[in-house]
Amino acid sequence: MAKGDIERVNGDNLLYRLFLNLLDGDDAVSAPLIDAMIRATAIWFPPQIYSQLPVLLPWVVRDPACRPRTVAGKRTPDEWSSPNADGYLRDDNSLIKNIPKSLEVVGPPESPLRGSLLGNAFVASHVWREVNLEDLASRDPRLNSFVPNLVWLPKQIAKLSDREGGKMQEALKRTSWALYRHAAVSDHLQNTVEDIWKLIPEPAAGPTIDPAYLNFFQVTDKFVTSRLTSLREVIQLCRSVLDETPLQKTGRISTRYFEKLPTLEKHVVGRFWSQIALYDSPG
Q1: Banded pLDDT at 11 (limits 50, 70, 90)
Q2: Radius of gyration, CA atoms only, the chain
Q3: Percent of the chain scored above 70 by pLDDT?
Q4: Domain residues of the chain, as ranges?
Q5: What does the alpha-carbon distance between residue 84 and residue 64 come to, in Å, rounded to a whole number?
């Protein structure tokens, strides 16, 4: 075989295949390995933030087609952050991925993540990747940034979690369910949150990890205020469109979204506004 015909080995792919073989093996090997991986590499939002902001970016939905790609030999334009037909901001997961960039990680004393900030090669993974057997949860704005559906993982561990029904994915589902399903939520959000939980199935019974051994982002008051301010600015943009009052551009709303949302039909903006306003705190 000519040297040019020999395949070059990708180290990341090699690592993934090694993990995959171990996870697909006997439970006596895979169960403690999965436990160790989640303890050492997974980062969650604490249940306290879930009670205040169960959906971190309720106006955002994942749409990989928003980025330029080649279709039938032609390059499509960049439409990231433009509104879709229902008013939701189109994202390629970059907004979700970067949400906790400024937050320190807290965890048990032995955690290699304790006291650090999120660096490169981490992926914002959706715990329930598919719902209704085939629909991707990230395509639903209620689930795209639903706190119980998000966990930050190193890239190769995240690939393991994408295997539908796989052992890693099921372990993450059980962990998330134990963390959030019965956690307190603000009164004005209870009905909305219960409707979201109905979209995802309860995981099969199995071992869970004591939260004392998990890693969490340390959420600050500034973080909460920033998320709510962004939500309220999108809500106000909708109100201005509906009331036909002058639009006020802010630094939190992308120029593309600001310019294109008013081009949608008023009944579409009104429906979108009513859906995202549910997440705002009263008063």
Answers
A1: confident
A2: 21
A3: 98
A4: 1-56+101-135+143-216
A5: 12
How far is it, in rounded angstroms, from Cα 233 to Cα 236?
Answer: 5
Which amino acid is present at 89? L
**Nearest by Cα to 167 from 11, 62, 69, 20:** 20
Per-position b or e across 225-253, b if 16+ CB within 10 A of its CB: eebeebbbbbbbbbebbeeeeeeeeeeeb
Please give the Cα distance from 277 to 283 (Å, whole number). Answer: 12
Tens digits of residue pLDDT in 111-125: 999 999 998 889 999
Closest CA to 63 of 92, 101, 97, 40: 92
Question: Cα(232)–Cα(281) distance, rounded to whole angstroms?
Answer: 10
- pLDDT for the residue numbered 2: 57
The residues, any chain, with a CB within 8 Å of residue 277's CB and separated by 6 or more, are 235
d(CA 69, CA 77) in angstroms, rounded, equals 8
- Please, which pLDDT band fits residue 134 given cuts at 50, 70 and 90? low
